[in-house]
Amino acid sequence: MALVRWSDVIGRYKVLSTLGGDSEVGSAYIGPAIAEVEGRLSGAYTVPFSDNNVTARDLAIDLVYARAQMSRDGNISDRVFKNIDARIERLINGTMTMLTTSGDVLKSSGQGDAWSSTEDYPPTHGVSDIEVSIVSSQQLYDEAIARGDLT
Question: pLDDT-based confidence at 139, cuts 50/70/90?
C-alpha cells in the first residue's frame, strides 16, 4: 500500500479534485511528493516510510497540495511550503517526533545513536571458536522474566 493515495489528498483538499483521477496525478504529484519527504528525512529516519506513518503521510499530502497550487496561487503554495519546511526541520532536529497510526513514536536516528533491544548485553558471537561462545546469562534471565517464567 502506498504512503499516500489520491483519495487522501482530495479528502483534505477537495479543490484539487479537478486535476483528475488517481492515474493522472499519481506520477505527476504523489510520487514526487513522497520522494521529497523521504529524501529530506532520510538522513534522520529509515526510509521508505510505511503507510502507517501518520506524520510522513501528512507531510506528503500537504506537499502534493503545495506543488499543485504553485500554478494556481503562489501565495498559498509559499505558505504551505514554509509550513512543511518548518515541520521537517523540527523532525530532523528532534523537537518533533513521527507518529504511527497505532500511536507509536518514531524517534530520529539522525543523531548517530543506533538502538538495539540487546545492546546492553555482551555479544554472543565473536571471533573465537564457536565452542567458547557463551550467551549472556543476564540476557537469558531478562528474557525468562519477560516471558513470565520467573517472578
Answer: confident
DSSP code for 53 = B
In angstroms, rounded to a whole number, what is the distance separating the alpha carbons of residues 28 and 33? 9
pLDDT of amino acid 83: 96
User: How far apart (Å, rounded) are the C-alpha atoms in residues 127 and 133?
Assistant: 9
Give CA–CA dist 31/48, Å, rounded. Answer: 12
Q: Is 2 strand, coil or helix? A: coil
Of 131, 135, 119, residue with least CA distance to 144: 135
What is the rounded radius of gyration, in angstroms, for the C-alpha atoms of the chain? 22
Three cell numbers, residue 88: 521537517
| Residue 98 bridge partners (DSSP) | 106
| pTM assigned to the model | 0.69
Could you state, in order of their start, the residue ranges of all structural domains in the chain?
Answer: 6-106, 116-151
Q: What is the mean pLDDT of the chain?
A: 84
Q: What mean pLDDT do residues 50-74 have?
A: 91
Q: Which amino acid is at 11?
A: G
Query: Mean pLDDT throughout 125-140?
Result: 72
- Tell me the three state secondary structure of residue 48: coil
